[in-house]
Design brief:
The chain has about 90 residues and is mainly alpha-helical. The chain has three helices and two strands, in the order αββαα. Helix 2 runs antiparallel to helix 3. The chain starts with 13 loop residues before the first helix and ends in an 11-residue tail after the last helix.
């Protein structure tokens, strides 16, 4: 029986790659109603995402550049949805 390794989805932009890594690590999640990315403020998930970036950067980036891209993305994501009414 032929065994294949599960393929990772094709990511076309660095932004898409960063969102995918952050979401996969549990550092961000989506607003259920509007789909905006929200920061979970989980330091362990953030560190896990940064470890992934260091170990598996996209072909076009060095590990340091990949970490910088993730940090930039985290800095741009808030912990609330801009479309949801304030509590």
């Amino acid at each position: 029986m032929l065994m294949t390794k599960e393929r990772r989805p094709a990511i076309r932009t660095l932004r898409g790659w960063a969102l995918s890594v952050l979401h996969g690590a549990g550092a961000i999640h989506e607003c259920e109603e509007h789909g905006w990315a929200k920061d979970r403020a989980d330091p362990h998930a953030r560190e896990h995402a940064l470890d992934i970036a260091r170990q598996e950067p996209p072909d076009s980036l060095s590990p340091d550049q990949a970490v910088a891209e993730l940090r930039g993305m985290l800095d741009s994501i808030g912990d609330t949805c801009p479309e949801c009414p304030p509590d």
